[in-house]
Model the fold of this input.
Amino acid sequence: MRLAGKLRRIHGHLVLAVVGFVLARPAFPTNLVGSALILAGMVVRVWAAGMLEKGGDLCTDGPYRFVRHPLYLGSTVAAVGFAVMMNVIWGWVLIIPLFAALYAGQVLSEERHLRTTYGAAHAQFAAAVPLIVPLPGRAASGTGRRWRLSLVLMNREHYHVVVTASLTALLFVKPYLVS
Done:
């Protein structure tokens, strides 16, 4: 089931990227703002990936102190950045709702898995920390886990960064490709 969800997300990302690229009418100012958002989203994702030991203890350190799903927060910020770079209303009307639908089921599935796996520890964590949007005064106390590049690589986040950087670069050069 988790693999099926992951494959749907991968294929969904591919479809969104192709449709987004075709519809995009990027301009330099929107590219600057959008790429800044994309960079911010990727920083959050890499920070989270470097803290997360899949199959290990419940992670409550790093960005997990502030949101239960910082990888999805980073992806959402990057998706908004791509919508800005697209510089067309369809980026907001089509891509963002499809992106949200793609992740909503995954977040709910992961929450069920975390509740089953970690029980009371997850319930306490969920009571203290919001799902995806950080809120003032809402944070977990961490366990002192440190960020590790080895976890970023083990979690294969570097692939996500390369694909995201490539699509960002394509949107910067698209105006020159179509003129």
Q: What stands out?
A: Residues 89-118 form the longest helix (30 residues). The domain at 2-178 is CATH 1.20.120.1630 (Four Helix Bundle (Hemerythrin (Met), subunit A)). The chain has a mean pLDDT of 89.
